[in-house]
Amino acid sequence: MVLVLHWSPRSPYVRKVMVALHECGLAHAVQLVRTHADPMIPHKGLMQVNPLSKIPTLELEDGRVLFDSHVICRWIDGQGTAGPRLFPAGASALDAERDEALGGGLLDVALSWLVEARLRPLEQRSAALIETYRTKLHSVADWLERHVPVLHGRPFDIGHLTIGVALCYLDFRFEAEDWRKNRPRLAGWHRDFCMRPSVRATAFHDDARPSA
Ligand SMILES: N[C@@H](CCC(=O)N[C@@H](CS)C(=O)NCC(=O)O)C(=O)O
């Protein structure tokens, strides 16, 4: 099986997919294509396969193209024949996807913050908007601190995966926000998350960006 994943080592949504690939034993089947998806400059080549010009985008062998990270992870999960599922059936299903949405929402806040603080022209940046993003980031972290017993209460799934990756992203880009401060249970939960081989194999890093 040859799959093509439009990929970046800087993207948290891509990392979510990479962790899922490792968890499901499919990482070896993917060819990674380094793609720079700039929110301010649509990528003409990427738009040939994903009109939204976003990564992750996965090209399947049969010519189908999948996005976004939720859909790609669902597909990855469906390839496995045995073992625990990232998208569990039954009573845990909604909790797993609700937690996936929370982790994804935290990433949306973080990415919007970066766009506002780094990419928009200086005179257009809004301090009020950035403060709103900071409030939401800490609101999610507080919610997660209270939510840790729930996370411990079910086997590893797409909710744990997405929340864990989102917190890794805060370490990568928002160290100054110190999300662990006064959140010992969440810090402990995340320490264990970071021990997973799938997480260790997919660390974020700033590489040289491709020109196109
Ligand atoms: N909801 C999407 C978000 C994907 C996303 O926004 N990816 C960023 C890279 S981290 C991107 O491609 N940004 C380019 C853009 O917004 O045009 C997912 O879960 O895959």
How is this fold's topology laid out?
Blueprint: E1 3-7, H1 12-23, E2 30-34, H2 44-47, E3 57-59, E4 65-66, H3 69-79, H4 93-119, H5 127-152, H6 158-173, H7 184-194, H8 197-200
Parallel strand pairs: 1-2
Antiparallel strand pairs: 1-3, 3-4
What does this structure look like?
Helix 1 runs parallel beside helix 3, helix 1 crosses helix 6 and helix 5 packs across helix 7. The chain has two domains: 83 residues, Glutaredoxin (3-Layer(aba) Sandwich); 107 residues, Up-down Bundle (Glutathione S-transferase Yfyf (Class Pi), Chain A, domain 2). It is 52% helix and 7% strand. It has eight helices and four strands. It is globular. It has 212 residues and is α+β, with helices and mostly antiparallel strands. The mean pLDDT is 96. It binds glutathione (GSH). Glutathione binds next to helix 1, helix 3 and helix 4.
Offer a quick outline of the entry.
This protein is of the alpha+beta class and 212 residues long. The protein folds into 2 domains: 83 residues, 3-Layer(aba) Sandwich (Glutaredoxin), CATH 3.40.30; 107 residues, Up-down Bundle (Glutathione S-transferase Yfyf (Class Pi), Chain A, domain 2).
Essential attributes:
Glutathione S-transferase Yfyf (Class Pi), Chain A, domain 2, 4 strands, single chain, binds glutathione, Glutaredoxin, 212 residues, 2 domains, alpha+beta, globular, four-stranded mixed beta sheet
